[in-house]
Specification:
This is Fatty acid binding protein 2, intestinal. Belongs to the calycin superfamily. Fatty-acid binding protein (FABP) family. InterPro entries: Calycin, Fatty_acid-bd, ILBP, Lipocln_cytosolic_FA-bd_dom. The chain is mainly beta and about 130 residues long. The chain has one domain: Beta Barrel (Lipocalin), CATH 2.40.128. It has two helices and ten strands; from the N terminus they run E-H-H-E-E-E-E-E-E-E-E-E. Strand 8 and strand 9 form a beta hairpin. The chain is globular, with a radius of gyration of 14 Å. The relative contact order is 0.23.
Length: about 130
């Protein structure tokens, strides 16, 4: 499927400003900007298994398109929401448990590049991953 494979972060666009808007402190923002995140995705129909590996943690997540689940970001922020597969795009809508604010994100693949776009309270950012 489109998302299957291992993806390593290549570059960021406005990611530090996005993390600042999310309330991530300066030290964690600086570390996260250089976390060498690698994502391995195994997609079977509407079901996904994602393994996130970085300098700070390894996390495995299983989810099904459209089904709500809980998730913690690397900084400890807890979210509840879902990913929905719409054609060739994964669209995520997550609500922060601490303040009820919405984080939206999309994942798309074009060639050997996966782009993850984020929006939180009017601040947009992107992370670009290359297929490993």
């Amino acid at each position: 499927m489109t998302f299957n494979g291992t993806w390593k972060v290549d570059r960021n666009d406005n990611y530090e400003k996005f993390m600042e808007q999310m309330g991530v402190n300066l030290v964690k923002r600086k570390l996260a900007a250089h976390d060498n995140l690698q994502i391995t995705v195994q997609q079977t129909g509407d079901s996904f298994h994602v393994k996130e590996t970085s300098a700070f943690r390894t996390l495995e997540i299983d989810f099904t398109s459209g089904v709500t689940f809980e998730y913690s970001l690397a900084d400890g922020t807890e979210l509840k929401g879902s990913w929905t597969l719409e054609g060739e795009t994964l669209k995520g809508s997550f609500t922060r448990k601490d303040n009820g604010k919405l984080l939206t994100t999309t994942r798309t693949v074009q060639g050997d590049e996966l782009t993850q776009s984020y929006n939180y309270e009017g601040v947009d950012a992107k992370r670009f991953y290359k297929r490993s």
